[in-house]
């Protein structure tokens, strides 16, 4: 197969889990996907981050005349020009790993898209009216016109079918790849940077958006100081309402207790997982939820909510808070977990080779059906 992958939307270090998703798939292609050819469609301002991939014999980099940092211009370009570029490539299929299939897609090349979740439907208050309408319009159009749709969990699959019945016969769950880490430990440097000690901090990987429910964890930390005054909370992530979050930290008097790392490397993140006391994931809505899986694979005691897909994707291996907003429940579950042995969990269904084989099987199926 000769497959194009649309990466024009990637704003390096600014799109969180969606970027992690596609980069894990690209890693899988490098390691396991040598039987097929891939053309990566990159933008002027993100091409540098994919340049090394072009050194692989089965990967070609195609830089397009558009910038990922200008989303509306990119969307216009994709509508007016993407199909023209695709027609010159002798492709079997294009994979667009986000929700957006261009409206002016004037080519017979099969198109597979990914809808990661329908957050704007469930939490409209987190989106401007224009952004919400744009997303819903795109989801509806993509569900109707894409040849196949991938989504991150069975929860999301049923959610998509419920809201967009046109997708019923062509949406399929393909879990997000979460490879096991083999990174070199970076903790000595991190220890000094964030003034933390091993096993003396909780860790969270999260954006600063409201549905991540960080406020509850902050209030829990305020109470936890009476139990262990030296315990810290370290949060890694980008995007969201940073100013409001920092105001709350100040209001609670936790400036010396809660530390924000911003964007960090995978190596640094993995070191923070490995040396924390427990991993906390208070989010109340996810399409998949990569961080808890990463933490569980390291054998870190993980406390999280069971909302949306989270119990499904974590396989019941974590400790769960049923009332996500209850400080008392968080404190109770943390106390419960503190008395238990830590355990390493494996997720073979989330490993890169398994996910890539699923993707390729779907791509082959779509190509075959389209050729009939």
Descriptive notes:
By secondary structure, the protein is of the alpha/beta class. The longest helix is centred in the last third of the chain and has 19 residues, at 352-370. The chain has a seven-stranded parallel β-sheet, with helices on both faces. Strands 10-9-8-11-12-13 form a six-stranded parallel β-sheet, sandwiched between helices. Helix 10 links the parallel strand 11 (278-281) and strand 12. It has two domains: 2-177 and 351-370, Rossmann fold; 187-347, Rossmann fold (3-Layer(aba) Sandwich). It has 13 helices and 13 strands. It has helices at 17-32, 71-87, 119-122, 129-145, 154-163, 187-194, 214-224, 242-251, 266-275, 290-297, 310-314, 327-338, 352-370; strands at 2-6, 37-42, 59-63, 93-96, 111-114, 148-151, 171-173, 201-205, 232-236, 258-262, 278-281, 302-305, 319-321.
Quick structural summary:
This protein is of the alpha/beta class and about 375 residues long.
Write the layout of secondary structure elements.
Elements: E1 2-6, H1 17-32, E2 37-42, E3 59-63, H2 71-87, E4 93-96, E5 111-114, H3 119-122, H4 129-145, E6 148-151, H5 154-163, E7 171-173, H6 187-194, E8 201-205, H7 214-224, E9 232-236, H8 242-251, E10 258-262, H9 266-275, E11 278-281, H10 290-297, E12 302-305, H11 310-314, E13 319-321, H12 327-338, H13 352-370
Parallel strand pairs: 1-2, 1-4, 2-3, 4-5, 5-6, 6-7, 8-9, 8-11, 9-10, 11-12, 12-13
